[in-house]
TrEMBL record:
One of its GO terms (biological process) is neuron differentiation. SUPFAM superfamilies: Acetyl-CoA synthetase-like. Coiled coil: none annotated. Gene3D superfamilies: N-terminal domain of ligase-like (3.40.50.12780). It is an enzyme of class 6 (ligase). The lineage of its organism: Eukaryota, Metazoa, Chordata, Craniata, Vertebrata. The keyword Transport does not apply. Keywords: Fatty acid metabolism, Ligase, Lipid metabolism, Membrane, Transmembrane, Transmembrane helix. This is long-chain-fatty-acid--CoA ligase.
Length: 741
């Protein structure tokens, strides 16, 4: 959304004069005090260079050009050693925090549905020493229950302090940890547990009762289940021979002298640390094998790009710990003395689905300084945000059984705040827009606007607690408009990162001083990147003005492959003549002159139309998600046709308002199927995509009245589109829209 275009006709000379005088009086002292000139020089510097001098690379960070980083702290080459160092350095400091549950209430919605609402207290903290003792006792207890070193143990649990305690216990005793998304379906969980042959499983009572109970009889080697809930549960109806314990019971067992004093077999750098199952966008989930050395190297690279990381920081943990970004972020925070306060998508903000109206969400209580977001996977409940002069009661947010929305957190905040701005009165809207445009212009130059921060954006920033100094977005490119919005309204840098499970989440991260948008930064000091021409010639390293091609990542952070998989599935890994391991990502990138990477496409998303034009499905989808009528979209193209079509999960509030304006009545499903509404959505899509090439703009649309969730099988547990399943689901509509029926 271009705010400036909306106000070009506004004659507001006195305000412009005030802003001009403010700039004149504050710019010079601010420029000198904050070192803006130095920051600009850092932003403009060359950040990575080609080792070979050739356009294809490989490219390395100039900060580690001679050799790649493999370790952050000398001698600390395994994850258990990192945690021991943290306990020595930060012993009595807060480490892991959980909010106290005061009460639960059932709230009846106007439609008759009942939602559970929570009233939460303050955060209760465990110190580093207390976490160390808890992990030590748990590890000894697991060993007493028969868990053997180098034998896998699974964790299928929500993000919480007990997850990290369990992980540290496993690292200490050399129990390779198998991680599974808490949103995985029954069949996928059973597949992962059987493939790894685990005998011990750590989970929660809720997941045990709702996701595991029906498939336990088919999990062949499982002997022990440990549930993390603090209260003892009387669980019945489970297979004979399967023993169920509380974590507290296992810790008590491990605290007995004969078990606690038993010598643990500590891991070596080449030992397996984690088997992390991906979400499986094209087939069954794959278990990525991560050695201790892989994770140590990856985190060394990540931490080098986060300035000032230390005991003064508070990180809010709410993304799935089974995702590589969250797991490595939390382990890094613990290593550097940050405290981690745990949250969930349903309790993150004051407006979240499980927070009782009038109560505080986790961000408001914790006031984090650092947080992460993963596109297409997370949600923040944003039916309304009281950001600036907002009025009227917020509409109830949509619900899902998982608590996740298939929309990136930043994009959702951006669309909702901008929507509320448009609902303001003329004067308030104009003041906000002028202030926004003024600060936006300053941010694009690498400057700031402290007065605007104080007067206009304080309430927006308070949505995330008011103290966030840096946000990291990873998993998919963030749109330039959304990144600028976060820079302006949340008054902090938004770093973009690029990495994969197969590279331990490490690849690139933008520098804090880099105020460009649309890029994911230069290679981290632990790895290097090179480009490979695509066979069809759609992207090559000879492209102008910058080389483009498939992204290959090499370095000590690249994992060893997939668990018990044949050579065909491991074909994307290879070792070069120098013994360095590489992973072929399948993503298409462009290297800028300063060595920074931009993600421009995905190999699997490229479709050649009948007339020979290439359409990037993901690129079109990313552009259209800024449309206010769209919550999620899948673009489809067929090589024997000359146009593309789309399937859309519509924004219910916006679409209902549109139907009301057009005098169209009916149920939600009837409105989604109404031809006039489809036409209106297509008109909006064409307006949003007017800068795209003609053949990229969908000419037909099918609106879905139901959201796409992992339960429907149309998206992965990380909320990435399952194109094959979506095609089969909408096959009748595809035939209809292409005129075959």
């Amino acid at each position: 959304m271009n705010l400036k275009d909306n106000i070009q006709s506004v004659a507001f000379f006195p305000l412009h004069l005030i802003i001009w005088l403010y700039t004149l009086l504050t710019f010079i002292p601010w420029y000198l005090i904050t070192g803006a000139r130095k920051k600009q020089a850092v932003a403009r510097r060359v950040k990575a260079r080609s080792m070979s001098g050739l356009a294809e690379g490989p490219y390395r960070s100039v900060d580690c050009f001679g050799s790649l980083a493999t370790i952050d702290f000398p001698g600390k080459d395994t994850l258990d050693k990192l945690f021991e160092l943290a306990v020595q350095r930060f012993g009595t400091a807060d480490c892991l925090g959980t909010r106290e549950l005061l009460s639960e209430e059932n709230e009846v919605q106007p439609n008759g549905k009942i939602f559970k609402k929570l009233i939460l207290g303050q955060y209760k903290w465990l110190s580093y020493q207390e976490v160390d003792v808890a992990a030590k006792h748990l590890g000894s207890g697991l060993a007493a229950l028969g868990q053997k070193p180098r034998n896998t143990i699974a964790i299928f649990c929500e993000t919480r302090a007990e997850w990290m305690i369990s992980a540290q216990a496993c690292f200490r005793h050399n129990f390779p940890l198998v991680t599974l998304y808490a949103t995985l379906g029954e069949d996928a969980v059973a597949y992962g547990l059987n493939e790894c042959g685990v005998t011990h499983l750590i989970t929660s009572v809720e997941l045990l009762e709702t996701r595991l109970k029906n498939v336990l009889s088919g999990i062949r080697n499982l002997k022990h289940i440990i549930y993390v809930d603090p209260k003892r549960s009387s669980l019945r109806g489970y297979p004979e021979g399967l023993r169920i314990h509380s974590m507290h019971e296992v810790q008590e067992l491990g605290a007995k002298p004969e078990n606690l004093n038993a010598e643990a077999q500590r891991p070596s750098p080449s030992d397996l640390a984690v088997v992390m199952y991906t979400s499986g966008s094209t087939d069954k989930p794959k278990g990525v094998l991560m050695m201790h050395s892989n994770l140590i190297a990856g985190m060394a690279g990540q931490c080098a790009r986060i300035p000032g990381l230390g005991p003064k920081d508070t990180y809010i943990g709410y993304l799935p710990l089974a995702h590589v970004l969250e797991m490595t972020a939390e382990i890094s925070c613990v290593t550097y003395g940050c405290r981690i306060g745990y949250s969930s998508p349903q309790t993150l903000s004051d407006q979240s689905t499980k927070i009782k109206k009038g109560s505080k969400g986790d961000c408001s209580v914790l006031k984090p300084t650092l947080m992460a977001a993963v596109p297409e996977m997370v949600h923040i409940v944003t039916g309304s945000h009281p950001c600036v002069c907002l009025h009227g009661p917020p509409p109830p947010p949509p619900q899902s059984t998982t608590g996740f929305y298939s929309q990136e957190i930043m994009d959702r905040i951006y669309k909702n705040v901008m929507s509320k701005v448009q609902e303001m009165g003329y004067l308030r809207r104009t003041l906000f827009q002028l202030g926004y445009d003024y600060k936006l212009a300053q941010v694009k130059k690498g400057y700031d606007a402290p007065l605007c921060n104080l007067l206009l954006f304080k309430k927006v920033r308070a949505l995330l607690g008011g103290n966030v100094r840096m946000m990291l977005s990873g998993g998919a490119p963030l749109s330039s408009a959304t990144q600028r919005f976060m820079n302006v309204c949340f008054c902090c840098p938004v770093g973009q990162g690029y990495g994969l499970t197969e590279t331990c989440g490490a690849g690139t991260i933008t520098e804090v001083a880099d105020y460009s948008t649309g890029r994911v930064g230069a290679p981290l000091v632990c790895c290097e990147i090179k480009l490979r021409d695509l066979a069809d010639g759609s992207y090559t390293t000879k492209d102008q003005p910058n080389p483009r091609g498939e992204i290959l990542i090499g370095g000590p952070n690249v994992t060893v492959g997939y668990y018990r998989s044949d050579g065909d599935i491991n074909k994307d890994f290879f070792v070069d003549e120098d013994g360095q391991r590489w992973f072929c990502t399948g993503d298409v990138g462009e290297i800028h002159p300063d060595g920074c990477l931009q993600i421009v496409d995905r190999k699997k998303d490229l479709v050649k139309l009948q007339a020979g034009e290439y359409v990037s499905l993901g690129k079109v989808e990313s552009a259209l998600k800024s449309c206010s009528l769209i919550d999620n979209i899948c673009v489809y193209a067929n090589s024997d046709q000359n146009y593309v079509i789309s399937f859309v999960v519509a924004n219910k509030k916006k679409l209902m308002d549109l139907a009301s304006d057009k005098g169209i009545q009916g149920s939600w499903e009837e409105i989604c199927n109404h031809p006039a509404i489809e036409t209106a959505v297509l008109t909006e899509i064409r307006e949003v995509a007017k800068s795209s090439k003609r053949f990229e703009i969908p000419v037909k649309v099918r609106l879905s009245s139901e959201p796409w969730t992992p339960e429907t099988g149309l998206v992965t547990d990380a909320y990435k589109l399952k194109r094959k399943e979506l095609k089969n689901h909408y096959l009748h509509d595809i035939e209809r829209m292409y005129g075959r029926k």
